[in-house]
Amino acid sequence: MGFARDGYLNTFRYSIQNGDRLDVVIKGDSRSTTLIVNGRVIDRLEIEKRWHNEGKSVMYYVPTLVFPLEKAGDFKSRITDLKVSNYLVKTGPSE
């Protein structure tokens, strides 16, 4: 599972299996994007240090995401009970 932004493909370490019915939460802030499935944190994409020019310069890549609510891509599935919030939603004791 993943998303593309600004020419980069960001992927979570999670695959949805055919026929799965899941409660998926994607939570983001200015420093990271977190995938939560059925109330359990699966993966978190955080700031990465990327070196360029043969190690002479560094760039910090921030894997944040903006949801494309008009068009979500080419997949054969159904999304039900979609909720979009612009505030922190508490998802569990560690979140």
List the helices and strands and how they pair.
Layout: E1 2-5, E2 8-11, E3 24-28, E4 32-37, E5 40-46, E6 48-52, E7 57-61
Antiparallel strand pairs: 1-2, 3-4, 4-5, 6-7
Question: What's this, in brief?
Answer:
By secondary structure, this protein is mostly beta strands. It has no helices and seven strands.
Total helix count? 0
Biggest sheet record:
3 strands, antiparallel
Helix content: under 10%
Give the N-to-C terminal Cα separation.
21 Å
Name a few traits of the molecule:
95 residues, mainly beta, three-stranded antiparallel sheet
Give a description of the structure:
- By secondary structure, the protein is mainly beta.
- It has a domain at 2-61.
- Helix content is 0%, strand content 38%.
- The chain has no helices and 7 strands.
- It has strands at residues 2-5, 8-11, 24-28, 32-37, 40-46, 48-52, 57-61.
- A 3-stranded antiparallel β-sheet has the order 3-4-5, with no helix packed on it. A two-stranded antiparallel sheet has the order 1-2.
- Strand 4 (32-37) and strand 5 (40-46) form a beta hairpin.
- It is globular, with a radius of gyration of 15 Å.
- The two termini are 21 Å apart.
